[in-house]
Amino acid sequence: MKYRKYCTASGLLFSLVALAHLLRLIYGMSVQIEGFAVPMFASWIGFVIPACLAFWAFRIVRASRNTW
Fold it and tell me: Do the Cβ atoms of 30 and 12 come closer than 8 Å?
């Protein structure tokens, strides 16, 4: 797979993960894993980190548009 396609696919995947966590935060959905209630701050972390990675991936794609 070419580098730009890889970065685009990674950016899309990270965007979907960030969106899922953002929706959980907005709607206040509860999540339980084997009886353990996952706290809401986990979704803040799960939103910020993938959102930054998606931004980074799309920035690389945009910067490499003219060089490849």
Answer: no
